[in-house]
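lol ok so funny story. i was supposed to be doing the assay writeup but got distracted and ended up predicting the structure for this chain instead. priorities right. anyway since i did it might as well share w the group, maybe its usefull for someone
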Amino acid sequence: MTFDPSVQVAMISTGGVVTAALVGVLVELVRRQGTALNEVREHTQEARDQVSNTHSTNLRDDLDRVISGLDLVLAGQAEHSRDIRELRAELSHERVERLAVSERLDTHITSAVLRDS
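and the output, tada:
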């Protein structure tokens, strides 16, 4: 199949324009991907800066140590709560005994006064 030379020139020109357009689109896509990768790189660095320490220990190890210490604090608090309950019970017992002694003393004083009168 033979085409007229003007048609052949038009087809070649059209092919060249389409190829140039495709190359332009590909270049733009690569540029956008590069921009997106740079943005991801920046965000990754920001995240790394947020979780990395300025010393030699790992953040996870630091957290584990804090949680372990928190368990010790909670155990100490439970012990203090038991001690406070025991002190309250002792105070309540002493109060009951003191009131009983006071009542006996009042009874004794009252009976002594009535006997002497």
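Residues 21 and 27 are 10 Å apart (CA to CA). The chain is about 90% helix and 0% strand.
back to the writeup now i swear
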